[in-house]
Amino acid sequence: MNISTRRIAGTSLAAAGALALAVGPAFAAGTTVSGNLNPVANNNVSNVSGTASVQVDGDMVTVTVAASGLLAGSPHAAHIHFAADATHACPTIADDKNGDGHINTSEGGPAYGGVMVSLTKTGDTSPKSALAIDRFDTAAGGKISYERGSIMVSPELAAGIKAGQAAIVVHGVDYNKNGKYDGATKSDLDPSLPTEATDPALCGILKAAPAGGMATGGGGTAAGSNQNLLLVGGGLLLAGAGAGAFALKRRSNAAA
Question: What pTM value is reported for the model?
Fold first, then answer.
């Protein structure tokens, strides 16, 4: 009877340990970075603001963007920008190379990098859709509320996002405040469009939260907490198995 008790107890302990190890990956969390979206210097958009976050899980990202104060009822192209050799910052008026007093998308490139992900509402999200005007948010009431997941990215971009080197840029300004994209100056990206349609309005560099900030911080903090919970749960499972074996042994001894 004692042999049977030891076998049952050993089986329970092994099963509990295996369960703790098996459950571990299910609690693993991705890395989340976030940032405020601020008006781009000298682009006459001082009343706009926003926030953005990106969660990275392997080669997939989930992007959330909220913004207000934008030109209502007009498409606003939005992207994740990144380049390894960029300064990983938002542009300043010092980046105005053509001297027109504004920052166009190309002038901001050395600061935030090129388009890596197009934040379209449907369909393709690659750089090829950077100007897919019919698939971007049109800012009803001047506001954007965007979320899209399962966007595949390159390993380089995933690493850049987690390192705090990527930017979210929302495009589309109304310099003359007449409620539409127009003007004689043409876009540096597509000469069939006015520059108002593609100049950057908002920019923010995505960063992980300081250590201890789970809401917007890196995956390490969240994963660590999950691992601690897992260890506690595993300990309870093991303790419960031990207690059960002890009770069974007492009953066996009493029966003997």
Answer: 0.73
